[in-house]
Structure formats: C-alpha cells, structure tokens
Write a structure and sequence with these properties.
The complex is a heterodimer of chains A (237) and B (108). Chain A has 237 residues and is of the alpha+beta class. Helices cover 49% and strands 19% of the residues of chain A. Chain A has 5 helices and 8 strands. In chain A, strands 3-2-7-1-8 form a 5-stranded antiparallel beta sheet. Chain A has a 3-stranded antiparallel beta sheet with strand order 4-5-6, with helices on one face. Chain B has 108 residues and is mainly α. In chain B, helix 2 runs antiparallel to helix 3 and helix 2 runs parallel beside helix 4 (83-106). The two termini of chain B are 27 Å apart. Classes of the chains: A alpha+beta (237), B mainly alpha (108). The A-B interface holds A 1, 4-22, 24-26, 28-29, 32 and B 2-15, 18-21, 23, 26, 29-30, 32-33, 36-37, 40, 53-55, 57-58, 61-62, 65.
C-alpha cells in the first residue's frame, strides 16, 4: 500500500492540472467565439459601406463619361443624331439617372404581432411579390424602375437569399420602395398583383400602397453594363 | 496529505504554465475531467468506508477519464454527440457519491 502513495499523489496532481487547464481552455474557447462574431459583423458592415461608396463612384464617373462624350461630340461635330441616339440608348440601358412622373409603390412585411405563428412566411414580402409588382409596373407603361434606389435593368435579378431580398446583388431591407417612372396608376391598379395586395393587406397584414408622384428620380444602374462575351448573331464572334 | 499536496501542486503548475488545449480537443478533456472528479469522489467515499485501495483508485481514475474521452471521440466519429451522455452518467454518479459521502460524514 505504501508503495502506491506517490502514484496517488501523482494522479491527484493530474486532476488538479486538468481541472485548471479545462477551465482555462473553456474560457479561451468562449473568448475566441465571441469576437469572431463581432469581427464578421464588422467585416460585413465595412464591405457593405465599401460597396455603397463604389456604387456612388461608378455613378459619378459614368456621369463624367457621359458629359465628356457630349462635349466631344460637340467639339468634333459628330452627327447630332448619333449623339442623341447614344443618349437614348443610355436611358434605355439604365446607365443614366432619369426623372419624371410616375408611381411609387411601397411594400412592407406585416408587423411581427400581426403574423400568425404557424405561418411566418405569409406575413413577409417575398422575391416573387416584388417580381410580380415590377412586371405589372412595366406592363402599366413604366420606363424606368428602381427598387430602394437600385435601378432595374435588363440583367437585373430580383431574388431571395434566405429571407433577404437581393436586387442587383445588393441586399435590401424592408420596407421596399419601388419607383416607376411612366407607370399608369389605373392600369397598374387593375393588375392581378395589385388586386391581390389589396386583399393581402387585410388577410395577412402586409403593408401596401401605390401613389402617383409628379416628380420621381430613378438613379443610374451602378453595376457592370458592358456585354463582353455575347455578340449579335451573324456578326461573328 | 501527500495526495492533497499533489492536487495543489498540479493546480499551481497549470496556473503557472497556462497550457492551451486545441479547441477540437477541449470537449474530450472536459469529459475526462468530469470522469476524474467522479473517480476522486468515489475514492473519498471508499476511504471513509475503509475500503480504499490506492491501486484500484489510480486505475479507476485513469481508465474512467480515458473511457469518457474515448466515448466522446467515438461519438464524434459516429456523428452522435455523446458529450451529453457522458456528462449525464458521470453527473448522476457524482451526486450519488456526494450523497454517500454526506451520509458517511454526518451519519444522516
């Protein structure tokens, strides 16, 4: 019995050692996990504001390019018709900000208290809803549309990433404000989606409004517009 | 006495050295420690019941800790979180041992 005494002491020493080590490492784990979350949030916020700054820079540079082109056209006496055509194309492509009379549609999720707990999704604005509203606005004569300041162009995708609406690869937060220049109120209001939204405001508590606006500004598309790979058929490439 | 000295020395050494355990192993270590606490309580109980045997205690201590860590490791590889199972089993045993100790000491 006496011979194993040191072993007993050794085992207890091990116990003490392990106890303190585990306590330390558990604390370290918690410390390591917490800042990681905060770090991620910070990275996301920084990147988001970088994207915002770059969007603004793109818009500014596009404006400068447009002004320079106009000036060059005047200076070199290029056909005035061609310059006008280029400007028209820019409006259609969505690379310049436009202003005019139109409709402003506002969509928002139902307040949390109004949502039924077994059907959370019914009280939410989905990507499909926004797609349908945009389509209805276009068929009501809209010429330029922006969703929360994101210009809808030919290559724009309105989709959902999880519960977040993504337009032009920019995540949007509700409420959604859809500005449509040139859209006719009565034609839009007759559309199926507008009628449905009228019902949904009462059944699901969604918030919806469509109003005529005398002066709306739709910003220029900030994304890449150049089409590099695709070429018109019959012209080679 | 020597045994308690060992406990204190071990704790002091850990405090001084501040060894770090890689995060993926910390769960195994935690389970091993819970098993070790159970063993030491069992040892104390045996001592008070005068059935204490050094050799048995040392063996039980090491094997319990090893088996606890091993179980969690196997669970990880099988895709089952056995951490809770080990914690529950040894947690219950710790309370049983404590109850036995209380009866022994206070004669309740």
């Amino acid at each position: 019995m006496k011979a194993t005494r040191p072993a007993l002491a050794g085992v207890l020493a091990l116990l003490g050692f392990l106890l303190v080590t585990t306590a330390n490492s558990a604390r370290a784990d918690k410390r390591a996990a917490e800042p990681r979350k905060a770090q991620l949030v910070r990275i996301i916020e920084t990147r988001r504001s970088q994207v915002g700054d770059l969007d603004a820079a793109v818009a500014k540079l596009r404006g400068q390019v447009g002004a320079a082109e106009r000036k060059a056209a005047r200076a070199t006496q290029i056909d005035a018709a061609e310059a006008a055509a280029a400007e028209k194309l820019a409006v259609q492509a969505g690379t310049v900000a436009v202003r005019g009379r139109g409709l402003r549609v506002r969509l928002a999720d139902a307040p949390k208290s109004a949502r039924s707990p077994d059907d959370e999704n019914a009280g939410r604005i989905h990507d499909v809803d926004v797609q349908l509203v945009v389509n209805a606005l276009f068929s009501a004569g809209a010429e330029a549309i922006a969703i929360n300041g994101n210009r809808v162009v030919a290559t724009t995708a309105i989709r959902a990433a999880g519960d977040t609406l993504v337009v032009n690869f920019r995540p949007l937060r509700p409420p959604y404000r859809i500005d449509a220049i040139g859209a006719d109120f009565t034609r839009f209001d007759r559309s199926e989606i507008a009628q449905r939204f009228h019902r949904w405001t009462t059944t699901f508590g969604l918030s919806y409004s469509a109003r005529r606006q005398d002066s709306l500004t739709v910003p220029a598309f900030a994304g890449r517009v150049a089409i590099a790979t695709a070429a018109p058929e019959g012209q080679g490439g | 006495m020597l045994a308690f000295l060992g406990l204190i020395i071990g704790a002091v050494v850990a405090l001084l050295l501040r060894p770090t355990v890689p995060q993926e192993f910390s769960r195994y270590l935690a389970m091993a420690v819970i098993a070790a606490i159970d063993s030491s309580l069992g040892g104390t109980r045996a001592y008070l019941e005068r059935t204490f045997n050094d050799r048995v205690f040392v063996l039980a201590f090491l094997s319990n800790a090893a088996v606890a860590a091993l179980l969690v490791w196997i669970g990880d590889h099988l895709g089952v979180d056995l951490t809770t199972a080990v914690a529950v089993v040894f947690g219950v045993r710790i309370f049983q041992n404590l109850a036995a100790l209380r009866r022994r000491v206070f004669g309740g």
